[in-house]
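Hi,

I'm pasting everything inline rather than attaching a file, because the server keeps stripping attachments. The sequence lines come first, and each chain or strand is labelled.
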Amino acid sequence: MAELVRLDNLWKVYHVGTTAVPALRGASLGIHQGEYVAIMGPSGSGKSTLLNVLGCLDRPTGGHYWLGDQDVSALTDNELSDVRNERIGFVFQSFNLIQQLTITQNIEVPLFYQGLPRAQRHPRSRQLAQMVGLGDRLHHRPRELSGGQQQRVAIARALANDPLILLADEPTGNLDTATSTEILGLFDDLHQRGCTIIMVTHEEHVAAHTERVIRLRDGRIESDVAKATGARA
Amino acid sequence: MKGLNKAADILGLGLHSLVVHLGRSALTALGIVFAVWSVIAMLAINEGFSYEAQQALRELGSDNIIIGSVKPPNLESSASEQQQGILRYGLLHADVRRLRSNIPNVRRCVTVHRTLKFGYRPGRNLRVNVIETEPTYADVARIQMVNGRFISAADMLRKKAHCVLTESLARRLFPVTDPVGKTIRLANEPFTVIGVLAQLPPALAGEGGEGGANVIVPLTAGRMRFGETSIMFGTGGGTSELVEVHQVILQMADEQAVLYGAKIARHLIARFHEDEDYEIKVPLELIEQQAKQQRLWNIMFLTIASISLVVGGIGIMNIMLASVTERTREIGVRRALGAKRRDIVTQFLVESVTLTTVGGLIGIGIGLLVPSLVEWVLKLRTIVSPATLLLPLGMAIAVGLIAGLYPAFRAARLDPIVALRHE
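And the predicted assembly:
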């Protein structure tokens, strides 16, 4: 299968005052279509930076990043916005729903910035809300939902643009164990349907759901282990 | 099409967040509301006032130069004049001759002499202002007859004891009958009423007539019967005044001639009059002055209003900055989900412009009410023209744009990663 994500000797150096702080020191990896990958590592290992670069929120200072067939490592801010808008789905630890908007409106935000007319956005958001099991809460506000439900909305939103990769940043970090299991179950479902998922976590039991674990340390890839069986069994 | 959809949606987004924070939006827009309605009220009152003033001047005739006699304030104390018992001042017949022969492009030159007499009719008696003048007075003062005719050249020549009444005087002397053909007495001299005119321009009518009673007689007839000396009875005896000519009205061929003629007239009269016992009124100049003054007031009002708009704008900017800070996380989320910088700029600009536009529209609403209230309570004329409404609205929109610019760019400049982490 073709590689969907290709990182080639990726560097990211931050400048704090006059000192240069490297967060990524030449990370290289490839991820195939349909893979379910966990990125792990202690704090300061560069996993957030890696996720930001993967999510096109940040540009690498060196190296190349191919997403699909496009080198996205040197795009302008506007072009990166388009890449995020059309090819990437984000799920955050703290859900990051927009409080004034209803559930469907939240799900529609990426479509909104694609310039899709309301008439086309609406059926899509309704369908996604139903898919994550919130078909009866379409016009509620995020505040009126539980944490687990909010994360479901966030996942529906991340899927709205039919992304190439789904990036999840500790998606269960703010949830209790039972709800975490539910949400991880949802990710498992998505994986089975063929979604490519990259998830940052520091919890082993969460990583156990994935089929490949990439460990970072000091900005370098320490280990990259694919489980033959995966967590599906 | 795609862009249009998006634009409409972002507009909706801006409106939406205003509605969500309705109370805050309303309070913020209040400054603009006040600024706009106060501009409208000020402009409307100023315009109304100016219109009235110009109207009064226009009644004098913009093609006229009006030269009048004025009793100089220092005359009473002048000993030599007092000894003769007669106060002499004002324009002379010689002045009129000089004006006539030296000013070019005069279409008509009308002389007026005024006296105050008692007007009698059996059973009625009141003080009237007698205007002794020439037939061309009708054209110069734009007199409209309601009944009969004005004095004619023949009346002048034959010193006929004919008179023309103002409508209000006619109604008082002849409440039921047609006055034309009837006789009234002016200081015991019988005069036949030959016509009734609608109204004299207030600025041309004499003073002292009871209830503004004016009667017009041929200049020659008046001079023959009443002379040029008038005796004023006051407390502690009477004073006599001798004024040869009370008013000369020069009707000029065109505007150019008015301005040029006024210049000559000023020199000509000043040369032969040591005292300031005359005044030269040029309605055209006054109208221009009035217009200039109105512009000046308008500029002043707009300046004051701009200050309040700036204050309102600062309020808007303040609230927009607060809104940007408060919604940093939302901005980060929107950026992560594909919003471009310009989408964020647009969103916040739409918000601030909507805020001031709505404020401006409410201000126009109140601004329309206030002038009618002023008209009703203070009995002042006000004029609300479209420009009076659109100018402050335009200013409000501009303020929204300017006040929103900095917060909007600040929002757009946020690093999405930092914004997402914002608590």
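The beta strands of chain A are 3-16, 19-32, 36-40, 62-67, 70-71, 88-91, 165-169, 196-200, 212-217, 220-226.

If the labels don't parse on your end, tell me and I'll reformat.
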